[in-house]
Amino acid sequence: MPEAFRKDGVSVLMPAYRAEATIVRAVRSVLGQTFTDWELVIVADDGIDYEAALGRAGIADPRIRHFSTGGTGAGSSAARNRGLDHARFALCATLDADDALLPQKLELALPHLLSHGIVSSALRVETADGRVLRTVGEGPDRVLGPGGYKFVNLSMDSMLVFDRRRADPRYDPGFPCLTDIEFLLKLWAGSETVFHLGTPLHVYTKQPRSVSNGPGAGAAMIATKQRLMKLLENGAYPFADPAGRDGLLDFYACSLAAERSYEARLAVTPGLLFEDHLEPFLAADGG
The dihedral of CA 107, 205, 88, 53: what is its sign? Predict the structure, then answer.
């Protein structure tokens, strides 16, 4: 880790693409954190001046820093990597510009990073108008290995706080989707376990159209999960705990089975969340 990195705070990484309607709420959720020694690294991926956009909403704070990918639509992976290039702290958190942190997210996560290197939290899934659809990962606080982690955190793997000194946490722009789990696979090279906070501390906004639920999403998800399984089987990702690979392969076998029947279920039950469709497959596997 470069000596220039500071160790006394958290860098919150926020990619922003066509986010003018949502970024104010996301930024205010960082401003509202009970832990205050943070910087917010916003990386525009659309040429928009988000500093001016926040200023029009009365938001100006020296802890907010603005950068750009230099293009339009380079992708969230490229934007997050640019954020990592500019982040000043060893400890980092991720937040999309249409999501939100609940006030104690950083405060509750930080005490566990020294021991585990990665902290996850339960999340609340909401519609764009604030209607709660479900929670993911809610329950007791616990320590999870890689396989157990996925059986608790069914989705949205970038919503973490992590110690970047343990492993290179860069995203792979070559993945068409599921870049978050590929990112997490790299983090596990330096951490045997994740400390999971079972209280929902992160709000995930389910947009009507996104990479995960737009046209052709099902085929893309199946192809990418098959690719991840092959990479895991071939040892492409080193694990601090090698046994973690087997639990992940077990999870993705269940997830692929669920993907193959999801579109048919959606036709019968419009609006069915993939997490709700997936859970019976995991239960049948004993997860």
Answer: negative
